[in-house]
Protein 1
Amino acid sequence: MPATPKVVSANKSLIKIEGLEELLRTITSLKGSVSRSAMVSGMKAAMARMARGLRKEVTRQGVETAHAASLKAGMRKSVGSRFLKGGIDKAGRSHATVAKVGFAVGKKGDDRMSKGTTGGVGVTRQTTHWFVLGTPERVPGEVKEIFGNTVARAANTHGDLALRAGIRKAKQRFEKLAAKRAKRRW
């Protein structure tokens, strides 16, 4: 088994994980549905742990606005994850495996504010990028970047925990499937 991967550095645009390539090579060398099932379980567990860490970082963020509590609550609600298994579709096209965790990721449906609310648009899936990236000066006003480094801080703080959770879950899945197959042979 390769060394445990760990987050080496994270900034706004890049999260660097050391040892991940070796782990992925080991998993993919174990051909078949068992390795794929374990990889999916591990990825989903790691993503869930990372999303929880990102929500914690939003809570810790110092926000100096009149509506800080509702802004933080809206941003916490917008944190999500999305996992797409790769492979070859019916048309014969190849698709990569995609795993995302972040603000307004994996959310579906209509989450716009109700008509009865007063003042402003609120924090929804469609508006979270205003608070992460900021907006330029415009007619209604400028929105300052409030949660810009939150993802990088979450990766630095909770990334190793997420990776360990994923590896632990993948190992559990391997063991469960191995026991199931051994039972079938007898």
Protein 2
Amino acid sequence: MFKNNTFYLTKKIIALVVIFLFTNFFTTGVSASCTVDASGAIVTAQYGKPVTGSVVNNGGGATDMCQVTPIATQIKLFKLAVCKQDTSYNDLSSCQYMLNSTEGIFHTIEMGKTTPLNVAFTIEPGIYPYALVVMSNKTGVKSSFQTTNTMVGRDVDGTWSQGNYCWTDLPGPTTVNGEATNFVEHGQALVGGTPILRCGATAGTPNWSYEIKGDLSTDDDNDLTRCINPNTNANQTGPYGDRIEFGLIGNGNATQNLLKMDDSFATTCENSAKILWTSALITPLNIVKDSAFDLKFKQTDVAWLSFTWFDNNTAPPLIYKAGPQSPELHITASDPK
């Protein structure tokens, strides 16, 4: 359901677009919600790695990851547009913009809340076969949850934090592929597996934690050093930067590219700063005069909890991050009454 969060753009457009952002975070095996008990606590193992698999059950069996609905997610938008030509090669000359910001606009998405995006725009009537989003490849999340068994969280003053309540505590940033990349725009990322969540006997106050997507092709090059030495990553050295084509997602064929901050194609993980998302729509948009639309963001199950365990299997499992997956963006419209 996509009634979780809506902001309204108050000029004129008619559109029906479904754009899925960052859907290649994880594609197989772990794509499921955390299993919870009757009280809403996430079902976890008591000690380390259970015989059946890993730490937590995501509905499809034991694993070391599952999805939860966070308190809030934060994204930074630079461009929202409808276009007459393919934008996946970074030619945006055919686009009509709902948002076109050099600095970018931060938007916080919270369950059940509606907030305005106060920008003015005009869309010329016409047929638009493409939809475009440009957003930061750094996304924030606030999350807090209870577990059925004790979890170990980050070190606090020399002692591992422990308890049945855990929350996002340190800002990070982490990376999707776990590499400690030093980004030109975003700064130094943490070493993969560094705990950024804190746990305790009672719920604490969550802070923003951030994750950066500096490599679109992690499924293709797991044996390479990726962002540590991007010259070994063939997908980072092509003429269109790091690029991945998804095929049909929603009502369009989707393509992602990584961009630098200046909107040229990223050439390394380090200089990646934005995601260019193009959706080649199955049914082109017919834009007419005096129509209105809004944008809705899915907020359910958009944070990935990552668990691990200690080798002796006698200590509680360790939870080390809540990786924000950017929510699904729905653009809908209606004719004026």
Protein 3
Amino acid sequence: MVTFICRTCLIIVIILTSLMSSGLTIQAVEVDNGIYVDFPITPKYTFDANNSHYVAVTDNCMLFVLIHRNAIPDYGKYFIASQKWSEIERKNVSEAFLDSVIKGRMHFVNGVNNAKQIMLGPYYGRKMIYSAINPVTGVRGKRISQFYLIKDKIVSFDCWIIEDNLAAYKEMNLFYGSIRNYKGN
């Protein structure tokens, strides 16, 4: 047991040292009620009537979170109806909704749907990797997206690789590895 604790402490020290030596300044951000993610730098926050955006651009990647509110029309009615559904029925409706979001994204970038099912606490989601033209650079690049249906919102965590190097993957892994739900609801 002591050996396990020592190994765990050593691993944590190595990871923290690696992050500190990489020049990253980790910024934990609550992007929605109880939903958190770490950015390698302080993100810029913008919003409009139905969307909130957190965007952080480094030399290596563009990381952003998009919260699209009111994604489910008449959510109050949907919520009441969903209380009578089985867990399988709730899952099937959520999965169908997420599949339509992915289909729209892939249509927009002329891509192929390779999405995998994921979860964040009780929330259903999708993870996909694809490539598309970066509108800033005009160059095709790798993109990674994770979408979650959280109540009446689609919360999308996205990474666009700008420089395909080790630092980009460290930033991406920090970002995706830090997505968490503290409230559990």
Protein 4
Amino acid sequence: MNLNFNIYKTHWFWAFFISLWFLFTYVNNNFFYESIAQKSKVNIENLAKLINIYSSSCMKNNSNTAEICIKDIESLLDEIPTYYGSHVTIKDKNERVLLEQGQVQYKNRELLKLSNLSDKLTYIGSLDASIEIIKRSKPSIWKSTLRSMFFSVTDIQILGGKGYDLNKAWLRSRPSFFFFFALLLSLQWVRLLSFNNLSNTIIRERNEIDSSNNELIVLQKPGEEQKQSIKNLQEKIKSRDSEIENKEGEIEGWLNELELTEKELELTEKEVGKLSRQIDIKNTKLEQLQNDEKKYSNNQLSKFITPRLKSILFNNPSINKKSSDTSTTAGGHHSKDFVKEVIKILKKDKSALEYITDIRGVDYDSHNRKTIVAFRDDYKNCLLKIISSGDEGYSAQITLSTKELHNAVSIAKYLANIKQFKDYNIKVVD
């Protein structure tokens, strides 16, 4: 990636995880408190309308006075539940307070006022008075997000809070905890896929470097020819210096050819230098990728992915397991070291060994280098041949417990996931 963002790296993984966790929690809390704020606005307006209607009905009774109706409104407000609390103030035209009731639960939250929502509803005509209703329901989303993520630890009195309420903390943090575990599992899987893709990236980088090296050889060849041509021309000119009067035209032609060849050589050397620098950059990148592969190829990743692969490739339908111990034959000459290494790798991964009846050294197949070949023998037994790379390579043949070629391919795919065989191709011969 252009920003060198590789999620398989521990610091990138946790940075990305925490950022997403914060973002998901922030969006959730913002939507929640935004909906609460909208409900609070509606509640404020409805409460103002109710008080207006109630006072108008009360004053229609000729025996009632404004004081009696104010007391009735006070009793009414005592019976009406409010979310996060409301503060109601009624004043006469002289700004004398007729009623002040209620309490705002949170003083550090966004202020909602009836006067900011509707000027029309702030006047109670029957009492010739004004009303103001305030609520505070929407907190700072940043602070709310952190409280949700960290289980409201700032509410603990020792940390300066007003007191810890476990039930309230759980209700506040429940969505954030869900995001925590969902993101952790999802990103861990993405991390594994990213790590597995690292081996493919390394192969691509190696191929690009090989291609560039071949291109460099092609470029260097005419450069050597140009150098030799310059040398030959210089020798010709030198040998004709004594005959300059007789060979003036011929020498002039050589000089022109020499000048042209020197310019061509200069261009060739520039191209060679440019390509060499590109190869150096690619080699540096390849070295970094190989270091990453070595560093992050840990047991945690292997333990996470192996059972899943085994379930996908070996089950549904299940492949018949071997009925006896696996026999091994190391082979002769230098090939025995390669076969021993294959035996060691397969014995280390017991999942694959359950389906292998025999491992032995066989003749090298130079046409299928770095390949796992799945095929049947004359007796319809399924076999795999692991062929090393290089001109003077080695081969190991694996006899399987299955008689089905598609099962042999599944086992070959599993082997290709093992680190030592990750860049091997798979070929099927039926």
